[in-house]
What we know:
CATH topology of the largest domain: Ribosomal Protein S5, domain 2
CATH architecture of the largest domain: 2-Layer Sandwich
Shape: globular
Helix content: 25-40%
Number of helices: 10
Largest sheet: 6 strands, mixed
CATH class of the largest domain: Alpha Beta
Amino acid sequence: MIVTANARLSIxxxxxxxxxxxxxxxxxxxxxxxxSDTITIDVFNTAFMDIVHYTxxxxxxxxxxxxxxxxxxxxxQFGYKxxxxxxxxxxxxxxxxxxxxxxxxxxxxxxxAHLAKLKPTPEQYYNLAVKIGKDxxxxxxxxxxxxxxxxxxxTPIKFKHNPQVxxxxxxxxxxxxxxxxxxxxxxxxxxxxxxxVVELAESGSLRELGSVLFNDFSETxxxxxxxxxxxxxxxxxxxxxxxGIAGTGTTxxxxxxxxxxxxxxxxxYRKQNYQTVMTKVIR
Length: 283
């Protein structure tokens, strides 16, 4: 069985420090995008255990633990006897804020359920996703939504736009755990409301939406990878409608109705050894 696992784009990120627990609470406005990995799942000899491997040389495969955990939790919950071979062809780079590990895990869980002839209820899927964590609850919904990471709650929105999407991916890897730790050490919340971003995502123009996008982690990420500021300034000078840093990674996104402009920018940064990807929002 062959399935795809798409990336997601966090276009605004709001942080709040819980005064009681001293934990950082994170809410994001998230868009699913067509950029995806390809996964082959086959029933394996029952004398073996589940095997997960990558068919191409991946830059960073720490995410394998997420998929191993998903298969383990799946077996614990449903008790099926089949074993599975999972082959992942990576397109989405790991560790760049695009959610590829959680997306792959979600796709594998759904494929195993189909092959093992299970029929999980939405509640069972959600409970399993919460046990796995790592944004898997978001990918069960896989729609434009506000995602509360701490509560693992997904609230879909009506995203009115249909822009071209450009990803400009810096080769540096900045682990999410380190981003959060560094933010707690020296970062500062921008104190902007995510509600305004949601309002313009649903009813404003793309340029109006771009004017209110924010990411509380941006300055922390730029301090780690200063070259990102140059890219952001370039996008501003080129009058791109909406852009920013995606989530907690070193990926910059640009949203525009001008495909030719994004192609020009893509070519420019590809020559500077960035990975660039043209894609679309999944609606």
